[in-house]
């Protein structure tokens, strides 16, 4: 099986603050990996390093064997932002947002052709948002918003999907729908990295999981990562015992 | 006097024809650009760049270069300085903007005061619609056309940059370049508009039309039609008002735009104050029932 995302000994500082310390992570094609760690543990920085938004002080990142810059230009990387980073009042329809996934396939004026419109319609069908295509993007529910951004990645024909906290502010049923969708995409060959606080959903969603605390503490099955003694390493004992006692 | 006389009389004069042409062009170009500025949250940046071009324009006048060259250089310089002050000191962005643009604007005022032929240059500050020469008109036409064509052709990229720069980055575009490009166009547009309303009031034309259109629609494509349409109508109405009331033309144009915004703010069927209040009352009644 070929490696899709390969992060080797990546170190990132913000000023004097160490965000990532020799983080190493290798993810095979078609796998879903859950990224677990406290706020400030470097999850967002890891995403940024993979996308080339921050330049590591040391270490390398490759996507499908290429540098992040080359991978971006070939359109294989798609990012689903955290809800709080999106201006939901922006005057765009769901269809407009999904169409932005096609821009890499278009000419300089990004004028959509028939193939682009078709790809957008198919992506919207796939995430079951076809009937909301003309809604303003903020008029969707929390889960639908996430699916709209996943649809953008599908329309883009991205093979590497990065989702930053996709389950924050999303109800349980929508979460299950999104998980099912991501599993389908992975079956079709997409490689998916998901950061999440929702530890209970992890075994249903992910094939593997990573415990991050600036360093990669553990990379194993979701159940390995969810062992209380392992969670304790990343979160401190408090949360580990609580997560054990809640159903 | 018939309505036709009323409408046609001002344009018996060549200077009024030129004033009309320049005002409408400036109004349209500024309005199109304003759609992105209000959505990105760059209103203050628009204020800064449109003021900071002043010394560039004056220096261009002194050395006999096109105004646009000086304006773009100082527009870019202002943005770079703002970024530098923000990133390399503990001063926050709004303060950095305030420091940089007022200093550059002051430099422009000082340059004007020490440059011979003051009458010509003081017009840059308040605009001089009624004293436009033929070459002024040509310059505005050319710059306006260039800016408008670029904005229209690259509109989807600019919208992507405004909405989700991270996605722009993810698909291999360079959001910093797109932003810099937009700010460069902002500097060019400032040159177009300062002929019409002057440096001080340019920022009004760069914010009000976009904000007005934003209250009227949830479609960016429609904003791009509504903002310049409203802005052009306001420009014409403002010009008539200035002619018949014998009042400052730049001021009248901006006042008209402000009045149009007020009407839309109150009565927009989609996002107006009245409608949102009525909806809120209805919701409360429904909740109580």
From TrEMBL, chain A:
Pfam families given in the database record: ABC_tran (PF00005)
Q: Name one GO molecular function term.
A: ATP binding
Q: Does the keyword ATP-binding apply?
A: yes
Question: Coiled coil located at which positions?
Answer: none
SUPFAM superfamilies (UniProt xref): P-loop containing nucleoside triphosphate hydrolases
List the Gene3D superfamilies: P-loop containing nucleotide triphosphate hydrolases
Q: Which InterPro entries match?
A: AAA+_ATPase (IPR003593), ABC_transporter-like_ATP-bd (IPR003439), ABC_transporter-like_CS (IPR017871), Metal_Ion_Import_ABC (IPR050153), P-loop_NTPase (IPR027417)
Q: Give the record's keywords alphabetically.
A: ATP-binding, Nucleotide-binding, Transport
Q: Key word Ubl conjugation present in the record?
A: no
Question: What residues does the ABC transporter domain cover?
Answer: 5-239
| Family the UniProt entry places it in | Belongs to the ABC transporter superfamily.
Protein name stated in the entry:
ABC transporter
From TrEMBL, chain B:
Pfam families from the UniProt entry? ABC-3
- List membrane-spanning regions: 20-45, 57-83, 95-117, 137-153, 173-193, 199-216, 223-241, 247-267
Q: Which InterPro entries match?
A: ABC_BtuC-like, ABC_TroCD
- Is 4Fe-4S among the key words of this record? no
Q: Which GO terms describe its biological process?
A: cellular response to iron ion; response to zinc ion; transmembrane transport
List the GO terms this entry assigns under cellular component, sorted alphabetically.
ATP-binding cassette (ABC) transporter complex
As for membrane topology, the entry says: Multi-pass membrane protein
Using the UniProt record, give the first listed, main subcellular location.
membrane
Keyword S-adenosyl-L-methionine listed? The answer is no
The organism's superkingdom is given as Bacteria
The alphabetized UniProt keywords are: Membrane, Transmembrane, Transmembrane helix, Transport
Write out the annotated subcellular location. Answer: Cell membrane; Membrane
The UniProt family comment states: Belongs to the ABC-3 integral membrane protein family.
PANTHER family per UniProt: ABC-TRANSPORTER METAL-BINDING PROTEIN, IRON TRANSPORT SYSTEM MEMBRANE PROTEIN HI_0359-RELATED
What is the protein name stated in its UniProt record? Metal ABC transporter permease
Organism expressing this protein natively: Arthrobacter glacialis
What does the organism's lineage look like at the top?
Answer: Bacteria, Bacillati, Actinomycetota, Actinomycetes, Micrococcales
């Amino acid at each position: 099986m070929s490696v899709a995302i390969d992060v080797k000994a990546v170190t990132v500082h913000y000023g004097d603050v160490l965000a990532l310390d020799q983080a190493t992570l290798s993810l095979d094609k078609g796998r879903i990996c859950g990224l677990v760690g406290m706020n400030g543990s470097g999850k967002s920085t890891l995403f940024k390093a993979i996308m080339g938004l921050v330049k590591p002080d040391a270490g390398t990142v490759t996507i499908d064997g290429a540098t992040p810059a080359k991978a971006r230009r070939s359109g294989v990387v798609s990012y689903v932002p955290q809800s709080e980073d999106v201006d939901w009042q922006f005057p765009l329809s769901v269809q407009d947002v999904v169409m932005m996934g096609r821009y890499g396939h278009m000419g300089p004026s990004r004028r959509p052709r028939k193939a682009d419109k078709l790809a957008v319609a198919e992506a919207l069908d796939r995430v079951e948002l076809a009937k909301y295509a003309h809604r303003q993007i903020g008029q969707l529910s929390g889960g639908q918003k996430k699916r709209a951004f996943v649809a953008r990645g599908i329309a883009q024909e991205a093979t590497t999907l990065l989702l930053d906290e996709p389950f924050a502010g999303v109800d349980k049923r929508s979460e299950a729908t999104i998980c099912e969708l991501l599993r389908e995409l992975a079956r079709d060959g997409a490689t998916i990295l998901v950061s999440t606080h929702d530890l209970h959903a992890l075994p249903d969603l992910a094939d593997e999981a990573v415990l991050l605390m600036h360093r990669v503490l553990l990379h194993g099955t979701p159940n390995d990562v969810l062992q209380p003694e392992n969670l304790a390493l990343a979160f401190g004992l408090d949360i580990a015992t609580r997560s054990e006692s809640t159903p | 006097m018939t309505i036709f006389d009323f409408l046609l009389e001002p344009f018996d004069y060549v200077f009024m024809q030129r004033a009309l042409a320049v005002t409408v062009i400036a109004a349209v170009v500024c309005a199109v650009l304003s759609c992105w500025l209000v959505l990105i949250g760059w209103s203050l940046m628009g204020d800064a760049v449109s003021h900071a071009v002043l010394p560039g324009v004056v220096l261009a006048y002194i050395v006999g270069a096109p105004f646009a060259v000086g304006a773009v250089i100082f527009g870019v310089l202002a943005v770079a300085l703002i970024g530098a002050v923000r990133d390399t000191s503990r001063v926050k962005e709004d303060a950095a903007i305030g420091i940089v643009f007022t200093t550059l604007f002051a430099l422009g005022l000082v340059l004007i005061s020490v440059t011979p032929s003051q009458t010509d240059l003081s017009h840059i500050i308040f605009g001089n619609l009624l004293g436009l020469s033929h070459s002024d008109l040509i310059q505005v036409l050319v710059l306006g056309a260039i800016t408008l064509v670029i904005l229209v052709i690259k509109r989807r990229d600019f919208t992507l940059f405004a909405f989700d720069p991270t996605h722009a980055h993810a698909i291999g575009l360079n959001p910093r370049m797109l932003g810099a490009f937009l700010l460069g166009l902002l500097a060019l547009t400032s040159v177009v508009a300062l002929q019409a309303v002057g440096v001080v009031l340019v920022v009004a034309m760069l914010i009000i039309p976009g904000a007005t259109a934003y209250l009227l629609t949830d479609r960016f494509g429609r904003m791009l039609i509504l903002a310049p349409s409203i802005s052009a109508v306001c420009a014409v109405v403002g010009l008539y008002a200035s002619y018949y009331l014998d009042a400052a033309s730049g001021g009248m144009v901006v006042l008209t735009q402000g009045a149009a915004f007020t009407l839309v703010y109150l009565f927009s069927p989609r996002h107006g104050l009245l409608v949102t209040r009525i909806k809120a009352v209805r919701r409360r009644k429904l909740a109580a029932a």
